[in-house]
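Box 3.1 — From sequence to structure: Amino acid/amide ABC transporter membrane protein 2, HAAT family
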Amino acid sequence: MSNALFPRHRGLLILALVLALLPLALPNAYYFDVAIRIALNAVVVIGLNLLMGYTGQISLGHAGFYGLGAYASAVLTTHFNWPPLGALAAGAAATGLLAFALARPVLKLKGHTLAMATLGLGIIISIAINNEGQWTGGPDGIAVNAFSVLGLEVAGEKQWYAVAAALLLLVTWLALNLIDSPVGRALQAIHGSEVASRVVGIDTTRFKVRVFVLSAVLASIAGSVSAHYIGFITPGMAGFFHSIELVTMVVVGGMASVFGSILGAALLTLLPQVLSAFEGWEVVVFGAILMATMIFLPRGLVPSLARRAKG
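Predicted structure (token representation):
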């Protein structure tokens, strides 16, 4: 194994160890709940970071894909009695097909026009979920059946933690292997310069479409699992503010950093809980923390700290 690859695989082993030992330090169900939400958010953020950090394509509508997965599981299991795994797979497939159909025209755009197009996509999905009250429950939301596999129901915080941790570890492993593959190097070349990438023979459109679809599918899977875990979902999970929250997790943790994605998801999931003590001022304190991070650590936490440690 090369020196370049060793730190990443060492990081994966450390993550696995932390995930395995963390339940021993969690005192009650509340802390398990926070840990589960962090893991599921991290799955979405890792996929989004592949798109933004490694390929340089921004998305302000990723919560829409998250919501599609959640509502696919809710509707198919509640109204049509589908098994949860089948509903999750169907939601991921449908989301992937939608992302594939939209990727080519959308990803031809650049900069703020690309951001506006993805924002519009997210808004359309959110409005559709809101208005289709017969199936989705509209603004009131919809209850979601329990998650079961082969008749065995996932119940209790420890079982749900095991599911979320396993999913996070799997997605982290897949992302690290993708980055170290020729595909990952092509994505990073596209981020550096699309023109130069095309000159050396990289099909930039094909690679951008692939990573867009992959990030959408990961968001959908996390949305499905989250829906079964929470047990009740509302259109807000597919809304604009959730998309901004996901993008912020990517930026704060570190662009082009898988472990930065996990740290960003952890920090921004934990901060609202910690800042609840500042009644009426939590949003101000939250904003100040984000501003300070961008001023003093502009590359994000993990890349900036790693660079300072080397220098």
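Summary of the box: Residues 31-239 form one domain.
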